[in-house]
Amino acid sequence: MVKTIYFDNGATTKVDEKALEVMIPFLSNVYGNPSSNHAVGFEALDAMEDARNFLAKSIGAKPDEIIFTSGGTESNNAALKGVAFANRNRGNHIITTAFEHKSILKTLDWLSTQGFEITKLPLDEDGFVNPKDLENAITDKTILVTIVHGNNEVGTIQDLESLGKICKEKNIYFHTDACQSYTKTELDVNKQNLDLVSLNSHKIHGPKGVGLLYVRKGTKLDPLLHGGGQENNLRAGTQNVPAIVGFAEAVRQSNKKSHVEKMRKFQNQIITTLTGDCTAVTLNGPAAGENRLCNNINLSFKAVEGEAIGGLLDQMFIEASTGSACSSLSLDPSYVLKAIGMTDEEANGSLRVSISRFTTQEEVDRFLETVPKVIKKLRKISPFGKLLDKLSINGVK
């Protein structure tokens, strides 16, 4: 049977075997509630606090600034709603971009019905925010800026340090969704002047259903969930100890230098080969390098639909994406690609390829053999593709 190639790691990743291994005892023998006042509970508590200490250290935070959640969506909701309502006496203005994850944009849409004013900053064609635009957008009513660190569709890595410096000087809370960038590029809450950071596990080879919210000490935040006094009274509910332990182990197993170098090598190979073997194809987002997530490739192919490319690749046991997983059921053009100025046609012809540290050379080679054939086949049945042939600029050389 043909082995499936999974190139949709921007949607989710497989669990690292060592992360799974360390979780098993906490699903069987060490099953205590970490809030329980007995030996089994203390054992669970110790494991959870070891994970908290390690994860805090990985981003330059203190352990008591880490709040465990169910994932990135909850962390984003908790950050935005928590800051908005806790600081309403200071102002009602929040700044963001049109480039954010849906859990940010939908939360801000809801906050706009509660009396908050939302400003979306412009982006350049690669998806970068100009710090001057942020500075100009700030008013005396601004209480929060939320800008994604690494974009999930086109891989743009924002300069958090410059943006955070502006927020710090203006005494405004600065939040970032770093779920895609964590372990792949630098994340330092002090150097980058971050007050709140959303992270999750399943994007980095940990289990689903767990994440964290970094909350800088002194940040005014109302809890999203009320109940027991867990997580410094900021997130009620019994903690998911097995998943928390697995989350920390997945981070332990990541090697920023060697894994990033490997992914960058494959990223460059895929971009260079496809833009060389296929005409009328463009790379969306910034060039490969320090300003782009090392696992992300997003390409637009003229005269073909991304959905058609994805469908044919799926039949050939290759899994990729034509947009973010959270909006994959929609046939509308990607709002991320539209936000950086792409036309509907360009956005509809896009394919997102997201590799991982487990990607092999064999998988990359098979992918690069297959894609040009798929494009050629689709262009043969496309009126515009036939026109490309007649003009001697056939889509595949």
Taking Cα atoms only, what radius of gyration do you get, to the nearest Å?
22 Å
* CATH class wording of the largest domain: Alpha Beta
Helix percent reads 25-40%
Shape: globular
What count of helical segments does DSSP give? Answer: 14
Number of domains: 2
Tell me, rounded to a whole number, the average pLDDT.
93
Strand order of the largest sheet: 2-8-7-6-5-3-4
CATH architecture call of the largest domain: 3-Layer(aba) Sandwich
Q: How many beta-strand elements?
A: 12
The structural class is: alpha/beta
Major β-sheet profile: 7 strands, mixed
β-strand percent reads 5-15%
CATH fold-type name of the largest domain: Aspartate Aminotransferase, domain 2
The poorly predicted ranges are: 392-397
| Topology as a string of helices (H) and strands (E) | EHHEHEHEHEHEEEHHHEEHEHHEHH
